[in-house]
Amino acid sequence: MRRRPAALLALLAAAAADNALLSASEKPSLKIRGVNLGGWLVLEKWIKPSLFSEWDAFDKKAPKDQWTYCETLGKTECKKRLEQHWDTWVTESTISDLADAGITHVRIPIGHWITCDIADDEPYVCGEWTYLKRVAEWCQKYDVLVWLDLHTAPGSQNGFDNSGHTGDALWDKSMANVNRTLRVVDEIASKVAEDDALSSVTTGFGLLNEPDAGIDYWRMLNYYEDAYATIRRVLGKDVAVYVGDMFNPKNFNWFWVSKDNAPQGPSNEAENVYLDSHIYACFVDDLKAMTPQQHIRQVCKFERDHINRRALCRNQLQRATCHRRNV
């Protein structure tokens, strides 16, 4: 009997989508059951605190994200430790166990530095791509599909540790940051297209994880338009594209409609797209006290109703992503 993975990192909620709108790369009757491989290629301290255990948790100067982790250790030591982490945090048995459990998809957060596009003033190191390719080969072997998720951006899109750098969200304050992110999307998509395993299993691409509500709205939408065009040009129409709702799904009611309902012609149409709404069933005492069944009801009944009331996205595929990440 196979050992179950010690950390089932995150729950990617099942999509209730119109079968006619699913991409050709997805089986027509497929129910998406997925997990998020969080804390692997983008560090989040609360997912794998052991990486940060040598520092006093109450020391304000202690590392708290990937930026400060590498900044504190220096690039040589940081890469040494991260390579050991990349090699062991997700293994072949992880993927085989997930497949045995009925998981159909894994969402893989990746940093904007994964192609080694690292600015002189950034302490990041790269080398993840080899391990990403290896996981894609395992996913291919065990019939698990992959949704890549650009989790970070230069300047930080939300100021959270999951953006790579905790602090102010400054991504939208400079077009250089936005343009660099677009270049990174192009580079990642091109490398996916060139790799047999990745191109075979990658059926979804997230353009940017959890942009903050304070990000300039129109700059965000323009970025989504340009990044969507890049994915379509490089990876084609069968790769689903999903976009973060900036924690306010109703603001996307009018954005991107199907080609049959596009009021402004081809420039306003989009196909095989998802609205990515994150539902956190943790962090506060009343949610922490819930049983597993209460969590399921909270997410699949009350939160779904909440999202559906706020975001009736015409003919779009709408996805709710809920996280249940181990610490």
The order of strands across the largest sheet is: 1-2-3-4-5-6-7-8
Hey, roughly how much beta strand do the residues contain? 5-15%
Cα gyration radius (Å): 19 Å
The general outline is globular
Helical proportion, percent range: 25-40%
For the largest beta-sheet, the strand count, sense and barrel status come to:
8 strands, mixed
- Poorly predicted sequence stretches spanning 5 or more consecutive residues: 1-21, 311-327
Number of helices: 9
Number of strands: 8
How do the helices and strands follow one another from N- to C-terminus?
Answer: EEHHHEHEHHEHEEHHE
Question: What does this 3D model show about the protein?
Answer:
This protein has 327 residues and is of the alpha/beta class. It has nine helices and eight strands. It has helices at residues 66-73, 75-89, 92-100, 129-141, 175-194, 196-201, 217-235, 285-288, 292-310; strands spanning 11-12, 34-36, 105-110, 145-150, 202-206, 240-244, 273-280, 317-323. The protein has an eight-stranded mixed β-sheet with strand order 1-2-3-4-5-6-7-8. Helix 1 (66-73) packs across helix 2. The longest helix has 20 residues, at 175-194. 41% of the residues are buried. Residues 1-21 and 311-327 have low confidence and may be disordered.
Keywords:
single chain, 327 residues, alpha/beta, 8-stranded mixed beta sheet, 35% helix, 13% strand, disordered C terminus
Task: Please render the helix and strand layout as text.
Layout: E1 11-12, E2 34-36, H1 66-73, H2 75-89, H3 92-100, E3 105-110, H4 129-141, E4 145-150, H5 175-194, H6 196-201, E5 202-206, H7 217-235, E6 240-244, E7 273-280, H8 285-288, H9 292-310, E8 317-323
